[in-house]
Amino acid sequence: MASALSYKKNFKVSPALQLFYTGGPVVVSPDEKTVACACTDDVKVVELATGVVVKTFKGDTEPITAIVYSPDGNTLFAASRSLQIKHWDLSSQACLRSWKAHDAPVVAMSVDASGGLLATASADRRVLVWDIEGGFCTHAFKGHTGVVSCVQFHPDIHRLLLFSGSDDGTVRVWDLVTKTCAAILNKHFSAVTSLDVSRNGWTLVSAGRDKVVNVWNLRDYSLQIAVPIYEAIETVLVLPEGCGLPGCSNDSSAQKKSGQASLNLLTVGERGIVSVWNTAGATCLYKQKVSDATVSSKQEDAKGGFVAAAWLPSQGEVMCVTADQRLLFYTSDTQENDEKDLKLARRLIGYNEEIIDLKFLGDGDSSLAVATNLEQVRVYDMTTMTCQQELVGHTDIVLSLDSCVTTAGVPLLASSSKDHSVRIWNASTGSCLAVAAGHMAAVGAVAFSKKKKNFVVSGSSDRTIKFWNIEALVAAEDITEVVKLSSQAVAAAHEKDINSLAVAPNDSLLCSGSQDRTAKVWRLPGLTPVFTLKGHKRGVWCVEFSPVDQAVLTSSGDMKIKIWSLVDGSCLKTFEGHTASVLKCSFITRGTQLVSAGADGLVKLWTIKTNECVNTFDHHEDKIWALAVSSGTEKLATGGGDSVVNMWTDCTVDDEEEAIRQEEEEALKDQDLSNALADTDWVKAVQLAFELRRPFRVLKVFTELLGSEGADVHTRQILQSLDKDYWKLMLEYIRDWNTKPKSCHVAQRVLHEFFSVVPVSKIVEIPQVRELMEGIIPYTKRHSSRIDRLSRSIFLLDYTLARMNVLIPVDNLSGPEIKDAADLTQGTSWPIVENLNRMDVSLEEKETTMTDANGVHDGKTFDQTEDEMVDAFVENGREADANCKIKNVENGSKSSKSKKKRKGAGGSADEKVAVEDGLRTPEPNSGKKKKTSSQVLLNSDAPEAVVEVEPTRDGLTENGGDKNDSAGDDDATPVQVSNTGTKLGRKKKKSVGARRKSLSSR
């Protein structure tokens, strides 16, 4: 019984091929497990075994020019064209120090055996030595007349020598003790590119582009021998005894009495071959016959050779770096005749340029063929993603790929190229089986037969389609020579370039897509036209037949995908969603879904029945040229202009199972959380709320907790038990709570306890703590300012309440007992109020000048200041106003009774004396006398004035004297207040001494 059809909803992506080397320095780590490579302006650390990028150190937008490891392998130095040198910690990936070293880019660097000194060689013709720990320059060597191209310390820690080679053809030996040039070795006639020192430390080897390797005796700095290599050398290595490479002897008895030994040298250079030499007699012990560094089948078209090499003693391998950013690893291999040869064990591809096409190979899709902007096709192992083979044969860029498996189980690969040809390859052996030549322009599309696997069709920029029969090729068991194919049918198909071809599952039809905005259906094998599918507004980039229906799929530069009927050629469905040209598309899930890739860098998953875009994936930084679907449609491979190949695996079932499991776990945790809240188990409740990522529940827990007893203690316990992984989440919650008025108080309380519990040294280690605090601090300042304003406002309320204490009877006065607050409002006559009512303030003099704070009156100084006079008003611990001042208040609404008194008294009128709470604005007169605790109405012929006094039992006047002292003063004049607040009062005829006497008598 067929299994139920399940739609795909999600794909998990993993980078299969990453860009990690774009040219420049390459350095192997001391433990030989990783290699640091320059990748534009970054440094990428790659595992040698798998080619996976494990670390990336961001640069400063300028290309990397030099890299070196420290001897312990814990730190890394990198110099860029920006003149900056950066010191990186490998474990934390932190930049320990960055400084400008030279006036020109640093070309080479070296670290001494102790790890304490760093030597930098620059294009400014200088060599500088730096103290790594101190960060300062210890030596500055000048003398070269050209760019210093290489530098190396002596491997013996006790021999403080430094060697440098330059474009001026000289090698200089620098003495670090005397800070002088110990020797100048000038036997090269071109740039010195490489230096190495023998294991015993007494021989120096130098290589240059003059095609010579010089061997120097470090005892007297004499030239021991010059070895002609006959090619420009980029790297020379002194091989250890017993290295096992071809031509190297394991006999160590050749040590000479002089202490000098014959050395085995390994050289690589412009020819792209590995050579082994012996210094005794300058003999060549081994030389590769064929170069693996070339990228073309024609030797004259080879694009450079090796640019660097390194010996890996733990692996017994030689790593060679090619000019086209490949890392080749060679091991010694014994041939049938017992002769040793170097065998290419594996490849790491640092830079694939643009990925043009991809195809899965074999029944189990165990390999992946990749076509790039190169003449070769690379085949990768899907398990390790290492390059298994390089199919060399085309003489120009490969544009299209297709694959199939013959009835005999042989995996075949077809490739078409700009060289006007199509090649058929045995994908398992990498051998070329046949060549189909006949097109007059670049062949942009190729397709195998889907059913019988006995023919190939090709479409070209010459606007023709050719049919090639390969039945004899498939039937042959062993092919020793490349077969020349001839076309069986030709059709002038389109008016513009042909971009794509697809063969129907039953081999009866062929569909072609062209830049002329049409797709055409042809009957095979005669290439008879059937339909012309018109509807796209731009060129058609991809075509494919449905595996289950009589329909064909097309994608175009008009950002649309269309499905056409093969019955009448009508358009059945149109899919829109891409924002750029749709370059590739394919059916998946038994023809019920389709996947598309576009120039917008997006991969989209569609359901055909609903015309719905199920998911969109964005994991490319450039247009996606290539899309490959595995035979079971469970895996996808995409590649594009970003030189990255991504592998996609269907994870729909895993996601659904994970969602069900998480739902069950959340239900259990929700129940546990409810139980913890009911049991007031705050610690457990908060832990569960954090696990569930429920910020509202966390807020609820803290809100309830802070309203209970021992809130601070419980809060500290919760924060102390909180896992470090949740510290960042806690700060994120606090930041969000702090922005809302309802929760800001809880946020501040929790933040206070958090800073009390967690040390500052741990807080600074929280990821993104700076961004979190930048979100917390502004709102905290706002809350602080608001609370400060409220606290200052509360002081005014406290002051008002303190001044209202005048209504409360004192203990030593007679009066009814206060039983509740209502007695204060029921008209009870309190003694202190009656005492205030009996106060009769007579203003005798027409002009009175109040004393200032220093007690000055009419130019004389009083013994008793105004503050002391005010203190005389204070009894029983009550506070009084520090400034007793007479205010002139114009009363707009005077009572009719006051008017009559003013007329009858000949100018005298009642004055309103108020005991205020320090405010300058008096209460307006309502026209009817109202007796209050803060106001006493007095009769006077002057305008109503507010006199600030402190009421006491003795009925003192506003000036501090006895009330009888002012009884006869009837001719008082109005008191005026200036705009600046200065009291322009009345002079009183009564002496100040009398008032002082009345105060002292108390």
Automatic annotation (TrEMBL):
Repeat is among the record's keywords: yes
Region entry Disordered, spans: 885-1002
Entry GO MF terms: U3 snoRNA binding
Highest taxon of the lineage: Eukaryota
SUPFAM superfamilies linked to this entry: WD40 repeat-like (SSF50978)
WD repeat windows: 57-98, 99-140, 141-184, 185-226, 391-435, 436-471, 491-524, 533-574, 575-616, 617-648
Keyword tRNA processing recorded: no
Residue span, U3 small nucleolar RNA-associated protein 13 C-terminal domain: 670-804
GO CC, one annotated term: 90S preribosome
CDD domains tied to this protein: WD40
Pfam families: Utp13 (PF08625), WD40 (PF00400)
UniProt entry keywords in alphabetical sequence: Nucleus, Repeat, WD repeat
Compositionally biased tracts (Basic and acidic residues): 909-920, 950-966
Cell compartment(s), UniProt: Nucleus, Nucleolus
UniProt GO BP: cell division; embryonic pattern specification; endonucleolytic cleavage in 5'-ETS of tricistronic rRNA transcript (SSU-rRNA, 5.8S rRNA, LSU-rRNA); endonucleolytic cleavage to generate mature 5'-end of SSU-rRNA from (SSU-rRNA, 5.8S rRNA, LSU-rRNA)
PROSITE patterns: WD_REPEATS_1 (PS00678), WD_REPEATS_2 (PS50082), WD_REPEATS_REGION (PS50294)
Main location: nucleus
Biased composition annotated in UniProt, kind: Basic residues: 984-1002
Protein name: U3 small nucleolar RNA-associated protein 13 C-terminal domain-containing protein
Organism: Physcomitrium patens
Lineage: Eukaryota, Viridiplantae, Streptophyta, Embryophyta, Bryophyta
